[in-house]
Write a structure and sequence with these properties.
With 441 residues, the chain is of the alpha/beta class. It has 14 helices and 13 strands. Helices cover 47% and strands 19% of the residues.
Length: 441
């Protein structure tokens, strides 16, 4: 805000200066160059302030400033001796307004995002990353009309080790509706540093944005957005909610199962991918898998956790376990009565926890946890839905729009990551005990 205000003040000074000197063009060119130089100087001096750097938040503003300075310098150089006439008051004001709009627009990223670069990791390993986009030849992309196949971007976070034949548990993450693969980067980094191979997958057209194999930007599908909005409205028929959620989960569980199957295939024969991805795959123990996800991604993880014997533990971050609802008839949901086969942990907001208490046996999460071989639930007081992701750390403005609480956002994510690591350490590595408080605040 301070930087933007200085830019706008200098722009106003230029307009007033021009009007007071009666718009003489030769003086205007000189004054404009002085002001543009002052704006560039202010920007670089502001880097001495905390929180301002040449990262993605300020690059657009710097580019605009440099372009305007170069233009002012070259125009002054070419016209300083031959410029005649006067610049009208209207043009002076119009130029000031245009520059103000440019500066304001270029400053938007600084208001939306922080300089967040992740939380400190506690494990013994440095973390490496690799990524690829895998094409599922068995499925046609339902969001396209050209017969193209379903593509699933995969992002690996894994230990940087030179030890040969190292095997680490495989953990797979699924983001929520309108989410993004980097949703819980601090969690992936923490797990990888502690000896896990983590895959965060994108669900194209359900994710906020991703890319396909041609480099095309794929944004969230408007139809899917409308469906989610409709489902979340009051008085939406439960039959519609069940039908839509079943459709969403089918797409997502197919994505996750495809990723697991591709990992297994790559263990047996070469697949077309990068050396870094193959190194990560070789490290992953595909018979010792943990699944976790946020919101709809949590529901996805719970559903796949029932389907595959390689899955040894599941964590649901504030999601309703929609896949465990197998029908809606006679005004009630019918739940899967088979005991949930692997240890499962639900990490909820206090409001989610209170709602679960209110609904009792009518709420699917309660039934799943009660019937699981080892079912746990813990909640965070004063937390909002997005507090179990990195978004409040990366973009407090966007996170608040989607739902955050008053809990300290850093402490909440650090504790969430600690709980996730403790749960997976116990069930995937046989290390330590799972000791949970009733709630955290």
């Amino acid at each position: 805000m301070i930087v933007l205000v200085f830019m706008l003040i200098l722009e106003i000074v230029l307009a007033v200066w021009t009007i007071k000197t009666e718009g003489e063009k030769k003086k205007y060119l000189q004054n404009r160059l002085v002001i543009r130089s002052a704006q560039v100087a202010v920007f670089f001096l502001s880097m001495l302030l905390p929180g301002i750097s040449l990262d993605m938040r300020f690059k657009a503003l710097l580019v605009i400033l440099v372009i305007l300075w170069i233009y002012a310098f070259l125009y002054w150089l070419a016209k300083r001796k031959v410029a005649t006439g006067r610049l009208s008051k209207k043009k002076s004001v119009a130029k000031a307004i245009l520059a103000t709009v440019l500066f304001t627009f270029a400053s938007v990223p600084a208001f939306l995002f922080t300089g967040y670069e992740g939380l400190p990791i506690t494990g013994q390993y440095k973390v490496k990353m690799a990524e690829d986009i895998w094409v599922d030849e068995s499925r046609v992309e339902e969001f396209e009309q050209d017969g193209s196949k379903r593509e699933v971007p995969v992002h690996f976070y894994y230990p940087d080790t030179k030890a040969k034949d190292s095997q680490f548990p495989l953990v797979i993450f699924s983001h929520g509706a309108f989410g993004y693969y980097q949703s819980n980067t601090s969690t992936y980094q923490e797990l990888a540093s502690r000896g896990y191979v983590v895959i965060s997958l994108d669900h194209p057209y359900h994710s906020f944005f991703t890319t396909d194999t041609d480099g095309k930007l794929i944004t969230v599908d408007p139809g899917f957005m409308q469906e989610v909005q409709y489902v979340n409205e009051n008085n939406t028929p439960e039959t519609d909610i069940f039908d839509y959620s079943s459709k969403w989960l089918k797409l997502r569980t197919d994505d996750m199962n495809f990723v697991i199957d591709t990992i297994k295939l790559a263990k047996k024969k070469d697949i077309h991918t990068s050396e870094d991805v193959m190194n990560a795959i070789k490290m992953a123990d595909d018979n010792n898998i943990g699944l976790f996800g946020h919101s709809l991604g949590g529901a996805t993880s719970v559903t796949v956790g029932r389907q595959r014997e390689e899955v040894k533990a599941v964590i649901d971050l504030d999601g309703t376990m929609l896949g465990e609802q197998i029908a809606y008839e006679n005004g009630r949901y019918e739940f899967n009565d088979e005991p949930y086969p692997v240890p499962i942990l639900a990490v909820d907001t206090e409001s989610h926890h209170q709602a679960a208490l209110e609904y009792g046996d009518l709420y699917v999460n309660n039934k799943v946890i009660e019937n699981a071989v080892d079912g746990r639930e813990v909640y965070f007081k004063d937390a909002g839905h997005m507090n179990f992701t990195d978004l409040p750390l990366f973009s407090p403005f966007l996170a608040k729009m989607l739902g955050t609480g008053t809990i300290d956002k850093v402490e909440c994510m650090e504790k969430t990551n600690e709980i996730v690591g403790m749960f997976f350490d116990h069930y995937l590595k046989g290390e330590g005990e799972v000791v949970l408080a009733e709630y955290y605040e």
